[in-house]
Design goal:
seven-stranded mixed β-sheet, 2 domains, binds pyridoxal-5'-phosphate, single chain, alpha/beta, Aspartate Aminotransferase, domain 1
């Protein structure tokens, strides 16, 4: 039976979104993700809003591997990991991920969202203290919410002094966890990893880094934020996604010590009660990591493209602060204005998404430009031309 109260409040919410210019229209693609995409109603446009940083989403080897996974294993096992849902290809992708990010072992989930929700409440026990950066991804925030037995605090964004004060104030006889994004998705800045590692050592805290926007992007061989800072192998726990640079389909992972991963196998609720990563994705992600390993030039091309776009935008007078990541926010301020500008860019053949409240704070609406190794000089020239006309 329809419930009048629910119907009324939902109608009001959706009307409110429409009137305040916050309503999101889904745009449909009619082909694969590349430097350009076919966008229903718009035709072919240059894509500057995907996390397809290495251009591997429709790489022939990645596509062929996914097809092979489907042929060898079928669609799936209709089971969770511990019953009859663990495939030999899970062991292979998990070994490949561990080797890539520099940990002894890794465990996959259907997404990094799930990985964060699996990890945090499983490792943080009664009496533990969790310290989370205020700009952390929503999946970390929700993962912390699930860790009800632990005390949770939020420290100011990338603020090592604030973090140290909180660590110092907490008594020594409890486990302490510091959680941060490696690369922050809305600002495009990098976590101060050397300082975080140092603090965590001094206060015997465990450091968790979610490197979803860093893996494949940062470091000369794309091994992520730890490689960027020369800290490979020195981070206690890494989480990340296979749904961005590493193939772009879906899937996530937790990477850490043998014992930590074994704890997750035994106790994390998503691995006990929810299906595993499909074989198609295990295969395509493994092929993506193999292409990255064989051809680190792809990372160099991404870094070169980031420089071209950043410098080009700066020349046009756009304020974009310096950062090694492939995320370039252009601050606009007003949400409606940011949406109008992204609409105009699309008319000029360039797809850039505007982010306003509540994804970012009120008055800090922005266009978020994301760069890919797949972009050729002509795409970058055309995109900068559109920004010039804007
Ligand atoms: C994108 C992202 C996620 C979610 O990844 P999925 O695999 O799509 O669930 C989690 N954490 C961070 C920091 C992200 O940027």
């Amino acid at each position: 039976m329809p419930n009048a109260l629910f119907e009324e409040r939902t109608r009001q919410l959706l009307d409110g979104l429409r009137h305040s210019g916050q309503f999101k229209e889904l745009r449909y693609l009619t082909g694969p993700m590349g430097p350009t995409v076919r966008l229903e109603g718009w035709g072919e446009v240059i894509c500057l809003c995907s996390n397809n940083y290495l251009g591997l989403a429709c790489h022939p080897e990645v596509v062929a591997a996914g097809r092979r996974g489907l042929e060898e294993y079928g669609a799936g096992t209709a089971s969770v990991r511990f019953i009859c849902g663990t495939l030999a290809c899970h062991r292979e992708i998990e070994q490949t991920i561990g080797a890539l990010v520099g940990t002894p072992r890794a465990l996959t989930y259907v997404s990094c969202w799930t990985a964060n929700e699996a990890l945090i409440p499983t490792v943080a026990a009664e009496g533990d203290l969790i310290l989370s950066d205020e700009l952390n991804h929503a999946s970390i925030i929700d993962g912390c919410r699930l860790a009800r037995a632990a005390e949770r605090q939020v420290y100011r964004h990338a603020d090592l002094d604030d973090l140290e004060q909180r660590l110092r104030a907490a008594s020594n006889n409890r486990a302490r966890w510091v959680i941060t994004d490696g690369v922050f998705s809305m600002e495009g800045d990098v976590a101060p990893l050397p300082g975080l590692v140092d603090l965590c050592r001094r206060y015997e805290a465990m450091l968790i880094v979610d490197d979803s926007h860093g893996v494949g992007v940062l470091g000369t061989t794309g091994r992520g934020t730890p490689e960027h800072f020369g800290l490979l192998g020195q981070i206690d726990v890494l989480t990340g996604t296979l749904g961005k640079a590493l193939g772009g389909a879906a899937g996530g992972y937790v990477a850490g010590s043998e014992q930590l991963i074994e704890l997750l196998v035994q106790r994390s609720r998503p691995s006990l009660f929810s299906n595993a990563l499909p074989a198609t994705v295990a295969y395509s992600a493994r092929a993506a990591i193999e292409v990255l390993r064989r051809d680190p030039e792809r990372v160099a091309r991404l870094h070169a493209n980031v420089q071209l776009v950043r410098q080009g935008l700066a020349r046009l007078g756009y304020q974009c602060h310096d950062s090694p990541t492939a995320i370039i926010p252009i601050m606009i301020g007003d949400t409606a204005e940011a949406i109008r500008k992204s609409q105009r860019l699309l008319e000029l053949g360039v797809w850039v998404v505007a982010f306003g409240y509540p994804v970012v704070p009120q008055g800090q609406a922005r266009l978020r430009v994301q760069v890919s190794a797949a972009l050729e000089q002509a795409h970058i020239d055309q995109a900068l031309e559109a920004f010039a006309r804007l």
